[in-house]
Amino acid sequence: MLAGAGLLTVGCAAPPAPAPAAVRRVRDDLGRDVDVPADPQRVVVLDPNHLPPLLGEAASRIEAVGPLGQVSVESIVGLEPDLILFAADYQDDLDPEVLQRIVPTVAYSLRPSVQDHLRFVASVLGREGAAEDLISGFDAVLAARRAELGLADRPVAGVGMENSEAVATVDVTGPDSVFGELLTGLGVRLVPATVDGAPVEGLLEDLSAENLGTLLGEAETLIVSRRFGGDELERGFAATVDSPVWTRLPAVAAGRVAYVDNQLVYGSFGLRGFEVLLDDIAAQLG
Prior knowledge:
- 37% of the residues lie in helices and 26% in strands.
- It is built from twelve helices and 15 strands.
- The chain has helices at 51-55, 73-77, 96-100, 114-125, 128-149, 178-185, 209-216, 231-241, 244-247, 250-253, 262-266, 270-285; strands spanning 4-10, 23-27, 33-37, 42-45, 59-67, 83-87, 105-108, 155-162, 169-173, 189-190, 194-195, 198-199, 203-207, 221-226, 257-261.
- The strands form four sheets. Strands 8, 9, 10, 13, 14 and 15 form a six-stranded mixed beta sheet that branches. It has a five-stranded mixed beta sheet with strand order 5-1-4-6-7. Strands 2-3 form a two-stranded antiparallel sheet.
- Pfam families: Peripla_BP_2.
């Protein structure tokens, strides 16, 4: 995960006045009731990708605190925030109880869908209306791309490639993953639906060369999430996509493959990242 931590300042760049007394009580994902400012002005958040769109023009300044997993209590407190959003999934080295003694701290985990995650963050910030506007806008973009691509009810495989120097490992996604959520929004029929009689729900990892043709042979289209990088990563990618088992796949032979940046899928870029990803898919398959 490449998202970092940051301070987001609302309003002018000058230090804000003392936080207002008005507070709201929210229940966080640790089961704690936390009193947060009704109108937070200086927010430290460990997954900042939702915040600028939520706050719109009110977001005047973002300062880096550090990469996820490497943020110290001192660096956070030194920014004098009035609210901390604590990404519990990525911060094993920080204790939210310690932070809570200093600044109101809301801990959260990733939710089943990007929309649910956005709504929770918005509820903490008191920006529910902005969140619904973002979701409505994305739904309109998704509907337009669904009509343009014409993939509704067609067999499509969502494939993940994790490159190494020698070869890329190949995964396939089900509807319960972040990638699968986006693809099912396009109306596709994800394949394979089952493997060895068991449903593919989340991510089925490390397909072998022996079963690759069987599992992906039904797909008319492949949408491949891959990691772009330096020469070593590109060599591993090339070794996979140039192999006979890959080039013989029906979708590959028909030129029905889109390769997209996996950081737009899994990098916590939220709905804005999904829109860029949809543009990329449409450019390659449209």
